[in-house]
Structure formats: structure tokens, C-alpha cells
Design brief:
With 132 residues, the chain is mostly helical. The two termini are 21 Å apart.
Length: 132
């Protein structure tokens, strides 16, 4: 969120080393989250085990299984890729205004996808799971 706010509020200001560090920190954090998520997907009951124990047509017919087996991991990987693209946009030899706009665009898109991929308790896929 800090990376988004700093990119949006920067305008024509120079793209500083502080903004590069925030972008680097963001990419490190999402990479760690992705690694933890992949470990859970391969070892937990809702990811790889679903794919090996049930036919794909059955998984796709069940909204909860489809969400955890296919949709969640796909959206999160896309979000991580967008964050990496945004980070690399800050390294390009373009104007500072364009750097801020591109990083903000990719970070906001990634945030929207991440929020859509969360199994919130008020959604059908998160019902009964609670907040914590």
C-alpha cells in the first residue's frame, strides 16, 4: 500500500532510491508469500491433492474446490508477476513521471487481483472459515 501511495502521490517528483527500496521490499514480501502459498498448495488438502484425487470436471463443478485448486493460485501468481513488472518499470530509462505512473498502475492492478483472490469470510468460498 505504501508503494502505491508513494507512486500515486509523486507526480513529477524524481523517482528516488527510497521508492526503489520500497518496490524491492514489496517484491521480496510477495515472493516469500508466493513461496509459502506454493508450499501450502502442494502439501495441503485443497491444492495438488485435489487434482490428484478428483477428476478435473468434478473440481470445476465444485465452486470451493475450484477456487482453492485453480482460481486462487492462478490469480496470486498473476498478481506477483504484475508486481515484478511494476518494479522493473521503475528501473527503465524513462521519465520519472512515467515511472511513477507505471509502477502505480501495476501495483494497483496487483492489489485488486489479490483482494479478489482472498477467500473472505463473507464470500461463499470463505463461509464458515472466520477471519483468523
Amino acid at each position: 500500500m505504501i508503494a502505491i501511495l508513494r507512486s500515486i502521490g509523486a507526480g513529477n517528483k524524481p523517482f528516488t532510491i527510497g521508492q526503489r527500496r520500497i518496490g524491492s521490499f514489496l517484491t521480496i514480501v510477495v515472493d516469500i508469500e508466493l513461496l509459502i502459498g506454493l508450499i501450502q498448495w502442494f502439501t495441503g488438502p485443497w491444492g495438488y491433492k485435489q487434482l490428484t484425487s478428483r477428476p478435473m470436471a468434478e473440481i470445476m463443478a465444485d465452486p470451493v474446490a475450484r477456487f482453492f485448486t485453480v482460481e486462487h493460485i492462478t490469480m496470486m501468481i498473476i498478481a506477483v508477476a504484475l508486481i515484478h513488472i511494476g518494479k522493473s518499470a521503475g528501473k527503465k530509462n524513462i521519465s520519472d513521471r512515467k515511472k511513477h505512473r507505471k509502477t502505480a498502475l501495476f501495483y494497483v492492478l496487483a492489489l485488486i487481483i489479490i483482494l479478489a483472490a482472498v477467500p473472505w469470510p463473507f464470500r461463499a468460498v470463505g463461509a464458515g472459515r472466520g477471519w483468523f
